[in-house]
Design the sequence.
C-alpha cells in the first residue's frame, strides 16, 4: 500500500510511543494482553512503513521525531541510520505543552 501513495508522505509524531514511555512521571497500570498486542502491531507497522519509505525512489517524506535516540528505538537502528543518512534535518522548537488548569 505504501508504494501506491502520494509522492510526499508526512508522518507526525513518529516517536510518540517512545516519547510517552519516557515522559511518564508515575507508574502506569499494565495494559491488558489484547491492548499490548494491538500496540505492538501498530508499532511494528509504523516501523515497517518508515523502513519502506526510506527505500522508495523518487519519493519525498517528512518524518517528525523527538530525537535520534527515540527514532532508533521506534524504527530500529538500521532504518534510523538510513533515514538520517539521506534526510535534510531541521531542529524545530519544542511544541508548547497544553495547560491543564481548568
Sequence:
Amino acid at each position: 500500500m505504501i508504494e501506491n501513495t502520494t509522492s510526499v508522505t508526512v508522518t507526525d509524531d513518529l516517536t510518540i510511543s517512545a516519547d510517552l514511555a519516557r515522559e511518564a512521571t508515575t507508574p502506569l497500570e499494565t495494559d491488558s494482553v489484547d491492548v499490548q498486542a494491538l500496540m505492538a502491531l501498530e508499532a511494528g507497522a509504523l516501523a515497517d512503513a518508515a523502513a519502506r519509505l526510506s527505500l522508495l525512489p523518487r519519493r519525498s517524506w517528512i518524518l517528525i521525531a523527538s530525537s535520534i535516540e527515540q527514532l532508533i528505538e521506534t524504527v530500529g537502528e538500521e532504518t534510523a541510520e538510513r533515514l538520517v543518512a539521506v534526510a535534510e534535518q531541521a531542529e524545530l522548537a519544542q511544541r508548547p505543552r497544553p495547560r491543564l488548569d481548568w
Observations:
- The longest strand covers residues 8-11.
- The chain has a mean pLDDT of 76.
- The radius of gyration is 15 Å.
- The first helix runs from residue 16 to 23.
